[in-house]
Amino acid sequence: MSLTAARGPLGSDPAGRFSSPLPRDVVFVEPHSRRIQALRGDDLVIDTEAALMVHRVGRPLSYVFPAELVVDLPHAPEPEAPGYVHVPWDAVDTWIEEGRRLVHYPPNPYHRVDCRPTRRRLRVTVAGTTLVDTDETVVLFETSLEPRLYVDPAAVRIDLLRRSTTTSYCNYKGDATYWSAHVDDTVVEDVAWSYDDPLPESLPIAGLLSFDPGRADVSAELPPS
C-alpha cells in the first residue's frame, strides 16, 4: 500500500520525485517469503511461503500465488507475473501473515510506524471550549501519511468526551476506539480516536488520543509536509 498510496513514490501526490519520470502504469512485483495462510471457515486453503507482492498504481497492494496452489479458489492471472494468480480478498474468511490476522489488505514491507515523545504543541477546541492545550505529546510518523500528534488523556478534558460506537482496524496500529465531544449543546461525533491495545510497533501510543482536524479546531505543531 505504501508505495502507491497517498504521498508514496507511486501515489497520487508523491512527497519526492524520481530523476526521470516513470510511466503511470508501472507495476512493481517482488518476492514475499513470509508465510501466508488463508482459511475458509476452519479449513486451511492456502499455506505458502511462495507468494509475490504486486504494487500497482491506484490499486491496493495484493498477494499473488502460484496458480497450482489455488485451483479450488476464485482467481485471476497476474499479467506481470506469469504462472501467478490473484485471489480476491473476500474469497476466504481469514488471511494470516506469519501468525498475525489481517484485515482489509496485506501489510506492506515498506510501511513503518515511528512513535516519538516530543514537545510539539497540540491545541484542540470544540465550540469555543479548549479540550487540549499541551506540549507533552507523542508524534507518530507513518509511511506515506501525514504525522499525527497523540496526547495522554490526563491532558485532555476527558469529561467532555464519550466513547462512540465507531471502530476501525489498522494492520500497523490495531483496533481503534473513537470518541465524540459533548460541549454544552454541541455534539461532534468521532472527534478523536485511540488505540487501547495497539500492535507491538505502535505501543508508545497505547491509550493516547489523537484528534481529527476535520471535526475540531486543531492546532498541531507538525513538521512541514
Protein described:
This protein is mainly β. It has 2 domains: 1-109, no CATH class; 113-220, Domain of unknown function (DUF427) (Metal Binding Protein, Guanine Nucleotide Exchange Factor, Chain A). Helices cover 0% and strands 46% of the residues. It contains no helices and 19 strands. The strands form 5 sheets. Strands 1-4-5-7-6 form a 5-stranded antiparallel beta sheet, with no helix packed on it.
Provide tags for this entry:
single chain, 225 residues, mainly beta, Metal Binding Protein, Guanine Nucleotide Exchange Factor, Chain A, 2 domains, 5-stranded antiparallel β-sheet, 4-stranded antiparallel β-sheet, 19 strands, 0% helix
Helix content: under 10%
Number of E-type strands: 19
For the record, the count of structural domains works out to 2
How far apart the termini lie comes to: 20 Å
Helices and strands, in order, run as: EEEEEEEEEEEEEEEEEEE
Question: What oligomeric assembly is this protein in?
Answer: single chain
Shape assignment: globular
**Largest sheet entry:** 5 strands, antiparallel
Average pLDDT works out at 92
Alpha-carbon Rg, integer: 21 Å
Class per helix and strand makeup: mainly beta
Spatial order of strands in the largest sheet: 1-4-5-7-6
Short description:
The chain is mainly β. The protein has strands at 27-32, 36-40, 43-48, 51-56, 62-66, 76-77, 84-86, 94-97, 100-102, 113-118, 122-126, 129-134, 137-142, 148-151, 161-170, 174-183, 186-194, 209-211, 217-220. The chain folds into two domains: 1-109, no CATH class; 113-220, Domain of unknown function (DUF427) (Metal Binding Protein, Guanine Nucleotide Exchange Factor, Chain A), CATH 2.170.150.40.
